[in-house]
Design a protein that fits this description.
alpha/beta, 9 helices, Lipoprotein, palmitate
Length: 277
């Protein structure tokens, strides 16, 4: 979902926010009109692609006028929903949303029965072919938003590179690393920029959507990747609290979890994105 909650990232997202909201401005009234078009914010890959498939192949028959607005960061889609510039978004998982709401005072909620897919987080490298090939003192890039950084560290811990303090949960940071046999150094970077760091670091933990945009496959290119089974990081449709029952939202939730969308995900992404329904 990546998808950040850290205020520093909001500065990086400001340009995208200005551009996106200006594009949405003329549709502010229709975003709130339950009989009008449904304006949805999404990150481009795979969320925007999945929504585009729904728009072109399923929405018209269901009587849904769908307008998809793409953003390249993990802050703007939530900010736009909170401010009413778009009605819904599709880009994030529950741990991220919980942390975002807590830190920013927003009140955004998942739409019931609208968890669509999982993007396995993976470790990538241009310098080694196996994770145990990382040398002592190697630098590993991590996404810097709270939940995805913790998720990245857990992936490294699950694969024996580090150990984390007990009970740190979804808020783990490099300060919570209790054992680091290889003396790895961590470079914290805004999630969308992590793929660009691959040439400057020894390895990078990259969110699935940004890996896909960088033409990397979690299924084929990652040294290790998260397992799909029992994973809490499924991406879902979200709205401002109180809007869950909007008839347009219910229509989109049903379409996003339809057999047609599952088939589209399975065929297009070949395991790099996994249907969560």
């Amino acid at each position: 979902m990546r998808n950040t909650a850290k205020i520093t990232t909001a500065v990086l997202a400001a340009g995208a926010l200005t551009l996106g909201l200006s594009a949405c401005g003329s549709d502010k009234d229709s975003a709130a009109d339950k009989d009008g078009k449904l304006v949805v914010a999404a990150t481009p890959t795979p969320q925007g692609e999945i929504l585009d498939y729904v728009k072109k192949n399923l929405a018209k028959k269901a009587g849904l006028d769908l307008d998809v607005r793409e953003f390249t960061d993990y802050v703007t889609p939530n900010t736009a929903v909170e401010q009413g510039e778009v009605f819904a978004n599709y880009f994030q998982h529950k741990p991220y949303l919980d942390d975002f709401n807590k830190k920013n005072g927003t009140d955004i909620v998942p739409v019931p029965n609208a968890t669509v897919h999982l993007e396995p987080l993976g470790v990538y490298s241009k310098s080694v072919k196996k994770l145990d090939g990382l040398k002592k003192g190697a630098t590993v890039a991590l996404p810097n938003d709270t939940t995805n950084e913790a998720r990245a560290l857990k992936l490294l811990a699950d694969n024996g590179l580090i150990e984390l303090k007990k009970g740190v949960g979804y808020e783990a940071t490099p300060k919570d690393v209790s054992k680091n046999p290889k003396n790895l150094k961590f470079k914290e970077i805004e999630a969308a920029q992590v793929p660009r760091s691959l040439g400057d670091v020894d390895a990078a933990v990259i969110n699935g959507n940004y890996a896909l945009e960088a033409k990397l496959s979690p299924a084929k290119d990652a040294l290790v990747a998260e397992p799909a089974k029992g994973n809490p990081y499924g991406n879902f449709l979200a709205v401002k609290k109180g809007d869950e029952s909007d008839p347009r939202v219910k229509k989109l939730a049903k379409l996003l979890t339809s057999p047609e969308v599952k088939k589209f995900i399975d065929e297009k992404y070949d395991g790099a994105v996994v249907a969560a329904f």
